Amino acid sequence: MRRLAMNLREQRELTWQEVADVLGVHLSTVLAWSKRYSEQGSEGLKSRTRGRRQASGRTLTLAQEWQLRSILVGQTPNQLQLDFALWNRRAVMQLIKHLYGVEMPIRTVGQYLQRWGYTPQRPTRQALEQNPEAIEHWLEETYPAIVARAKAENATIYWGDETAVAEDGHWIRGYAPAGVTPVLVADSDRKIFLILDNLRVHHARLVREWLEGHKEEIEAFYLPPYSPECNPDEYLNRDLKTRLRTSDRARNKSELLEKAEAFMSWLAKTPERVVAYFQHASVRYAT
């Protein structure tokens, strides 16, 4: 991990805070590694025999933590025969006991969830309105056809979405990296295939007219209604909101916007984080 930290700093040109965020350690830890590296070179990155090993005071091993995090992202409690509709602390506590035989206090479960950046989320009320047949048709026929056309026409597939971020009631509109903007067209000579949800504004007359006027450069496709989990941008939105909620509180809308833009700038330099959005079970079809 120490060598990876130095590589992220030197090759990716990340700040030390960004390196700490990627590796899930405290800023002071990576600064200590940097000091040892500057003084001792590669020898300073070797593990020391004295002192307590990282995470040695935790109930779960790092491997168990990664397994749990993957389950919480990719599966629901009822899929694992647990009597919960959503992942709350008590559901996670039962999962830990089921998997590892560990009876963890619910307060400790909450500490793990907080450390991982998990926060309570409102369940969507649209799930019951989904059309399973439409989603199956999208997965089995529509999207593969889009991919085939993109290859044939040397086009690039982008995913678009919108999200609102808030802190203490101050709301702004934020946008995922992909969207119907002239910048996207200017950044590439390849045609753009843009996949969007069915938000009403995406079908507005002005949007349709603009797309018609730029049909040689960009073409829009639409996900099945009420299926945000099929859009990789949905997981970017969740990541952004988690970061905003767990960082220092913004005092006004301007600071909140700065925080959102800082996260997106960091994300642009961290492609492995973007790749992770496509690892969710619902969007692996897009890889």
Note down, in words, how this protein is organized:
GO terms for molecular function: nucleic acid binding. InterPro entries: Homeodomain-like_sf (IPR009057), RNaseH_sf (IPR036397), Tc1-like_DDE_dom (IPR038717), Transpos_IS630-like (IPR047655), Winged_HTH_dom (IPR025959). This is Transposase. Residues 190-256 form the Tc1-like transposase DDE domain. The chain is mostly helical and 287 residues long. The protein has 3 domains: 2-45; 62-115, no CATH class; 129-286, Ribonuclease H-like superfamily/Ribonuclease H (Nucleotidyltransferase, domain 5), CATH 3.30.420. The chain is 48% helix and 9% strand. It has helices at residues 2-10, 16-23, 27-40, 62-74, 89-100, 106-115, 132-152, 182-186, 205-213, 233-246, 253-268, 271-277; strands at residues 156-159, 162-167, 170-175, 192-196, 218-222. A 3-stranded parallel β-sheet has the order 1-4-5, covered by helices on one side. The model is unreliable at 50-56 and 168-186 (pLDDT under 50).
CATH superfamily caption of the largest domain: Ribonuclease H-like superfamily/Ribonuclease H
Mean pLDDT: 81
Report how far apart the termini are: 27 Å
Q: Which CATH top level class of the largest domain fits?
A: Alpha Beta
Give the name of the CATH architecture of the largest domain: 2-Layer Sandwich
CA radius of gyration:
22 Å
The helix content is: 40-55%
H/E element string?
HHHHHHHEEEHEHEHHH
Binned strand content: 5-15%
Strand order of the largest sheet: 1-4-5
CATH topology group of the largest domain? Nucleotidyltransferase, domain 5
